[in-house]
Predict the structure.
Amino acid sequence: MFQKILIANRGEIALRVLRACKELGIQTVVVHSTADADAMHVRLADESVCIGPPPSRDSYLNIHQIVAACEITGADAVHPGYGFLSENAKFADILAAHNITFIGPSGDHIRVMGDKIEAKRTAKRLGIPVVPGSDGAVTEEREAKRIAAEIGYPVIIKASAGGGGRGMKVARSEADLEVALQTARSEAGAAFGDDAVYIEKYLEKPRHIEVQVFGDGAGRGVHFGERDCSLQRRHQKVWEEAPSPALNAEERAHIGGVCARAIADLGYSGAGTIEFLYENGEFYFIEMNTRLQVEHPVTEAITGIDLVHEQIRVASGGGLSVRQEDIRFQGHAIECRINAEDPRTFTPSPGTITHFHTPGGLGIRVDSGVYSGYKIPPYYDSLIGKLIVHGRNRVECMMRLRRALDEFVVDGIKTTLPLFRDLVGNADIANGEYDIHWLEKYLAEED
Ligand code: MV4
């Protein structure tokens, strides 16, 4: 087991990882920017190293500073959290070259999944169902037209270096295709320095369902069920739940089994998320994330398993603590992302939190690094906390969530809490009847 883990992140996830380390008796080092000197995780860590000024590229993204902090403190592993360097293959490689363990998959696995064309090819080879489309990159209009005619319109053109919704163009008929292809290619080239694009059948009203997987790096793979993350705005998830209201136990076991076997065959190590669009009873792979995700607590709530413990165990060579048959799904969990933003416009609202009171009681978990008197710096993303509610079934979970939202007090700044108070009273949400476009339509109709 590791003696000392360096946490290369900030905010609620830095605290989340720190808690796991403490439970495992592992010493902790945090690195932070000058803007985060007052953060809760900095106070709670055994050691802290200030690595630079507020802009992320000069601190949380500065690989050399982080490696130096490992060398100075004698950390033998790094947990990257999510975002920042968590899916940076070069970072994983550099740490390996310094004999420091990256708590995550190999640089090569990160690289494959970061290239969306390569990821899709790999998924297909491993027996994961993918969206019908081009076999690889498409450059010529003639070829694009041939593929689109074959799969049928509408089609979507996506950047291979994109992901998370960046660099996509929909073509509803052949007349749109030339412009869509050229715009997608030039935007991809400008944004990512890589103009490779690919074509897929455009699914009109899917849900976003993702499967939590783990590999032990030695040929074993397991799944922890799925999360439904369809409620998004501008590709930012707002509300996530497990299990998906759209799946039955048979579908869950089937797609989970397919994903677990793929992870085993790939020799993957650590936590991963296989993302699907789900429409008319079919799953279509879109991307794989090679990190722990923001919404991992809903999976923890329904399985009772600490996924950060598992990440640390696997990275240290201790293997997974569970076999597939030990993983049981109990009840229902919902996560609400509390952002320091206007609940209608989503404009960031940094500043001082004058009063912070979190809900409690059975089935309630709040993951947050903020406290009364804390000043939210303006430099980073606006997530200030997550409310995760668990109940024996979805109805109980929703009742408990409504009660928890009533107790939650965040004064001094604007937050997305009022949006969630509206959502828990909505009939579509109560019925679990929503797709990836539901939230944006709802917000457009509100004003
Ligand atoms: C799609 C799609 C429809 N058809 N692919 C957006 C994020 C990126 N991960 C993939 N995305 C989409 N890919 C096909 N073939 C619709 C989306 C999409 C979306 C997906 C998940 C959650 C929210 C979304 C919002 C708009 C579009």
Notes: The longest strand covers residues 221-233.
